[in-house]
């Protein structure tokens, strides 16, 4: 597959906002506007999709309405990047309706996380276009963006910065997530390089076997999860093994798994230990970091570029710019 890199942004460029998943409750509109204000303070202009605040039961409009906003943003020559408003559960309803040739002909950066992983991975799989895993508008920027995320976003959007991903010195693990490490940790040593691919664990499992799944061959796979306790994480990690994904990758970056605690305290164990056990028949390195996931400061990670990990030295490096 030929990898397509979107154009880097400059101050004054327009960033489009769409809602590919859950409907935005009216009580969060002020928070949405704070997210818009954050991007404007960075020097960008913002265009809001016409269906962003629409509601179709639990989703932000019908699948066709959500796809219409996606197509409009890719077709609009003034829009230089697109970001999701928030996640949800139903972005995969859009996939059969998306015009992938349209996206290939009008490449631009798409940003998001959580259920947005559906679009991050499928856009790369179907068009080869690099996408960006990072904070969304409502819960990332609208709730209050930390300097770590702000600096990461600016460095990527304006320069396509490459190099070592720094740890967040302010990372904290609350009681509901104590099975995640407080600091970067190696669960299996070694070094590996490959194409960076990943996102939300549930979405990765959901896309397996569909026409929208990326090729994990020789990839550096990064994963995060939310609202999934260690028992369910064990189930999903076993699935990644049984589905053949572990057999393809060169290394794994385990992100932050929010709300992972079991009610029965005797059942709790480190998430990294669970992953290492599920991948015990493989030799790839496993590095756990805290800067990928829900309710934590996120490093902005370009999907589709070359990256490397050194689990012994606790290093994750982006080795290729994701923008042109």
Name its key features.
eight-stranded mixed beta sheet, Glucose Oxidase, domain 1, globular, six-stranded mixed beta sheet, 2 domains, 324 residues, alpha/beta, 9 helices, 27% helix, Rossmann fold
Overview of the molecule:
It is a single chain. Helices cover 27% and strands 21% of the residues. It has 324 residues and is of the alpha/beta class. The chain has 2 domains: 14-145, Rossmann fold (3-Layer(aba) Sandwich); 175-318, 3-Layer(bba) Sandwich (Glucose Oxidase, domain 1), CATH 3.50.30. Strands 6-14-13-8-9-10-11-7 form an 8-stranded mixed sheet. Strands 2-1-3-4-5-12 form a 6-stranded mixed sheet, with helices on both faces. Strand 8 (191-200), helix 7 and strand 9 (219-226) form a beta-alpha-beta unit. Helix 8 (230-242) packs parallel to helix 9. The radius of gyration is 18 Å and the shape is globular. The chain starts with 13 loop residues before the first strand and ends in a 6-residue tail after the last strand. The mean pLDDT is 97.
Summarize the SSE layout with pairings.
Blueprint: E1 14-18, H1 29-41, E2 45-48, H2 63-75, E3 79-84, H3 100-105, E4 109-112, H4 117-127, E5 131-133, H5 137-141, H6 147-159, E6 163-164, E7 185-188, E8 191-200, H7 201-207, E9 219-226, H8 230-242, E10 251-258, H9 271-278, E11 286-288, E12 301-303, E13 306-310, E14 315-318
Parallel strand pairs: 1-2, 1-3, 3-4, 4-5, 8-9, 9-10, 10-11
Antiparallel strand pairs: 5-12, 6-14, 7-11, 8-13, 13-14
Helix pairs in contact: 8-9
């Amino acid at each position: 597959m030929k990898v397509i890199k979107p154009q880097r942004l400059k101050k004054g460029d327009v960033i489009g906002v769409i809602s590919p998943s859950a409907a935005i409750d009216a009580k969060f509109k002020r928070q949405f506007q704070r997210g818009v204000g954050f991007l404007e303070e960075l020097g960008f202009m913002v265009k809001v999709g016409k269906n962003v605040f629409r509601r179709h039961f639990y989703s932000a409009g019908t699948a066709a309405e959500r796809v219409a906003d996606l197509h409009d943003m890719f077709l609009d020559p003034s829009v230089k990047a697109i970001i999701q408003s928030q996640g949800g559960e139903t972005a995969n309803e859009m996939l059969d309706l998306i015009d992938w040739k349209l996206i290939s002909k009008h490449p631009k950066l798409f940003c998001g996380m959580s259920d947005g992983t559906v679009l991050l991975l499928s856009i790369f799989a179907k068009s080869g276009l690099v996408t960006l895993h990072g904070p969304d508008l409502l819960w990332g920027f609208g709730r209050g963006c930390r300097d770590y995320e702000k600096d990461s976003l600016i460095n990527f959007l304006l320069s396509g910065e490459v190099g070592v991903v720094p740890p967040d010195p302010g990372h904290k693990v609350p009681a509901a997530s104590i099975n995640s490490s407080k600091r970067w940790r190696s669960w299996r040593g070694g070094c590996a390089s490959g194409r960076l691919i990943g996102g939300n664990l549930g979405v990765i499992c959901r896309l397996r076997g569909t026409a929208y799944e990326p090729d994990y061959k020789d990839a550096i796979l990064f994963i995060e999860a939310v609202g999934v306790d260690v028992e369910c994480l064990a189930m999903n990690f076993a699935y990644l093994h049984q589905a053949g994904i572990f057999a393809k990758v060169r290394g794994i970056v385990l992100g932050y798994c929010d709300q992972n605690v079991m009610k029965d305290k005797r059942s709790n164990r480190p998430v990294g230990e669970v992953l290492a056990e599920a991948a015990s028949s493989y030799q790839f390195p496993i590095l756990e970091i805290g800067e990928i996931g829900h309710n934590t400061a996120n490093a902005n990670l370009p999907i589709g570029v070359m990256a490397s990990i050194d689990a012994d030295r606790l290093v994750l490096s982006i080795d290729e710019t994701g923008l042109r």
